[in-house]
Amino acid sequence: MMNANDHTYDEPAEEKVYTQLASISNDYRKYDDLKRPGSHHSYFEPQPDPKPHHVCKDVKIKFWIAFTTVIIIGLVAGLTYIVIRFRYNTEECIKAYDSGNAGFRISETRAECPNDWQTFDNRCYKEFPERRTWFQAADHCRSIGTDLVSVHTERETSFLINNFTQTFQWIGLSNYQNNGKFVWSDGTILNYTDWRNNEPNNFNNNENCTHLFNLYPKKWNDNNCFMSLRFICKMQVYPRCGPGVWIYYKDSCYSFNTLLDFDFTDARSFCRNNGSDLVIIGSKEEYNFIISQTTKHQGADFWIGLQKLRNQTYIWIDGSHPTYLAWGIDEHKADNNLCVKSSSMYGNWYGDSCSNQNRVVCEKRLLV
């Protein structure tokens, strides 16, 4: 009967790092079948022999079997001890590495708008002169991590009209779906409107999108979504993520190392040397953002900051428990590896030996 702390051969074999498990020669593979000499299970069961000179031979065989059994039991006991110590020491190394960096802090990033954007109430705004349909404009804003502007106060409307003086610009309000109900494309609530007189009028039953109307009175007007107009994008204040190639998304900066491969420990060191750490994915939305970047590099797998403890539970490297998981089918049930990677091919997560080489997703969160 196995105790809770015992391990099968497969577990240490799959988690070996730079060594191989000791093997037992073929002569000893079935030591469990060896019983005391004379039992009906013995490989060398003595047979009655009326000749006296065979007595010594029987004694030698019995002694050889007993001696061999003792040696095999000793080898197995030693092997079991080595396996248990190896697994224990591996986990202790991981714990020591983390505790040794307990004082590590991701460097602070300051929040500012890019040079060609304008700031208002902790938000960034930019008018794009290219003329696009409402749908094309929305797609362009989203492709750069923003959205068509939503407007929530009279002060914000005044800011837009005074700073973006072209005649018409798309904003993010539309009712082409939602049963004719106007909604903002960025998902914020509709708590303020500033329509021109008799608007929205849905002229010819074909006006489902909204733009600024910068002729007196300077207010909002509904229009055909397929008109080509300028447009205004809006985003939260952009953080200065620091040197290097970083992508800002919802209060975090992300770096996708697509050139170098590291084992798990070196991957953390790589991120920390850049003032960040391995990515912690807390939601479906963040997961979608991550795979939108990693799937650009088919065939590469990326370390994420998820690890498995000895009690088979998973935690993020900051000690928090997962609130969102994206395992491949049955992956978390069958896998015995301690570290986790994200596949660029399928977008799912898979266990992997911590000593294997993968690429890296680093993250540093904006301190607000």
UniProtKB/TrEMBL annotation:
Residues 120-234, 249-363 form the C-type lectin domain. It holds the Pfam family Lectin_C. This is MRC. It comes from Mytilus edulis. SMART domains: CLECT. The chain crosses the membrane at residues 63-84. SUPFAM superfamilies: C-type lectin-like. Coiled coil: none annotated. Keywords: Disulfide bond, Membrane, Transmembrane, Transmembrane helix. It comes from the Eukaryota.
